[in-house]
Write a structure and sequence with these properties.
With 405 residues, the chain is an alpha/beta fold. Helix content is 33%, strand content 15%. The chain has a nine-stranded mixed sheet. The radius of gyration is 20 Å and the shape is globular.
Length: 405
């Protein structure tokens, strides 16, 4: 199987895990990536002089209408300075939910939702306030478990301003800068709060990267624990695991390829390699959310999208894929970890989870790993969530962190 097909196959697995990324070959691009159409909201526009700001600096704040999904809380949105995948300054955002029973400097949870999308209409804020049930964030009502405990919640748009679906490291950086931003706003009552991270699958990927990067990227943050489930920790390994054939989730695979081209426009070239069918699918999903992407891409394959089956044969492509694989990242979390997954999950390499956690344990990290008795990737999220929230409550209470290393 050609490298092109293996890597786009890896994106298919990544898409099934709802957020993992894959890398495409560096090339001299003659066509620009196809970026999402703006939703017309000027709030997201980066102000002049963005580079003069430090990561986490607040650029803009607005209060949003109270949301029916959070009946005991109020909602704000914060635009802040963060760092893009190639190191450039970007303006990212987070949605902040403050419950009525929150005490000053009480717990702050940064929850990274599952976002499988390329369109700006799929941002957290837009999906929280839509009346379309196909676009709503399905995890949102479950966050009342945290809100009723008095925890403030930050929901970062961890795909970045250009909806760079599949860019793993980027998600970690935006998550950490979102925490910085909300803690710099006195009216949010979390300036000295203990912080925890949580997320599953694609949200777990951003969560796990934030935990691993915190020591070097945001060492000043007081993060008491990270609960991360179903995390795809080695994208290169996924590339060798999926056969080259039409797949029902190919649309998400293709979306991951396009999102990574947006994230690494100076290193990756997808658009120039597409044939007419590939360009057509690119335009059909470039502004889509999960259901549209799935519908347009179902049953297609990598080989149908390009006429050049050898253009992926470049070691640099595998290097970039490795750079977005958490198993191969040498950073060590400086907080306790709760991790859960199904031991029979066929969508993610379970041995990569075990290898990563073993490395953390060897470095002295308190790790509690829970195997969920379910063969299904998504049902494992639901089954493991109650234990994850209880574990987080103990970290906020400053109880000793358990470990089954």
């Amino acid at each position: 199987m050609s490298s092109w097909r293996r890597l786009l196959a890896a994106a298919a697995v990544a898409a099934l895990t709802l957020g993992a990324g894959a890398a495409l070959v560096p090339a001299v691009a003659t066509a620009a990536p196809l970026y999402p159409v703006s939703d017309g909201d000027p709030f997201y526009t980066a102000p002049p002089g963005l580079a003069a700001h430090k990561p986490g600096d607040v650029l803009r704040v607005r209060q949003l209408p109270d949301n029916w999904q959070f009946p005991t809380s109020h909602v704000w949105q914060v635009l802040f300075r963060s760092t893009g995948a190639e190191g450039q300054p970007i303006a990212a955002d987070t949605t902040y939910v403050l419950p009525n029973n929150h005490q000053p400097n009480g717990p702050l949870l940064s929850y990274q939702p599952i976002i499988n999308a390329l369109g700006t209409k799929c941002r957290v804020e837009n999906e929280l306030y839509t009346s379309d049930p196909l676009l709503q964030i399905r995890q949102a009502p479950a966050l009342n478990v945290a809100l009723l405990r008095g925890w403030a919640v930050s929901l970062p748009d961890h795909l970045g301003p250009d909806m760079e679906y599949g860019a793993a490291r980027l998600g970690g950086q935006i998550t950490l800068d979102g925490i910085r931003a909300v803690q710099r706003l006195p009216q949010f009552l979390v300036q000295r709060s203990p912080v925890a991270l949580a997320g599953y699958s694609g949200g777990g990927l951003a969560t796990a990267w934030a935990a691993a990067m915190a020591r070097s990227y945001a060492p000043e943050l007081h993060i008491v624990g990270s609960a991360e489930g179903g995390v795809p920790m080695n994208l290169a390994k996924m590339a060798h695991a999926l056969a080259d054939h039409p797949h029902p989730a190919f649309g998400l695979a293709f979306a991951a390829a396009l999102g990574l081209e947006r994230a690494y426009p100076n290193q990756l070239d997808v658009t120039d390699q597409l044939n007419a069918q590939g360009r057509r699918l690119q335009h059909e999903i470039a502004n889509g959310c999960t259901n549209e992407i799935m519908a347009f891409g179902a049953g297609h394959s990598a080989g149908q999208m390009t006429d050049n089956t050898n253009f992926m044969d470049d070691p640099a492509a595998w290097k970039l894929l490795n750079e977005n694989s958490l198993e191969l990242y040498q950073g060590i979390p400086d907080m306790p970890i709760f991790e859960w997954h199904s031991p029979t999950d066929v969508l993610i390499p379970v041995d990569s989870i075990e290898n990563t956690l073993h490395r953390y344990c060897q470095a002295g990290v308190k790790v509690e790993s829970m195997q969920v008795p379910s063969p299904d990737h998504l049902s494992a999220a639901v089954i493991g969530s109650p234990a994850a929230f209880d574990w987080l409550a103990d970290r906020f209470a400053d109880a000793p962190a358990p470990s089954n290393c």
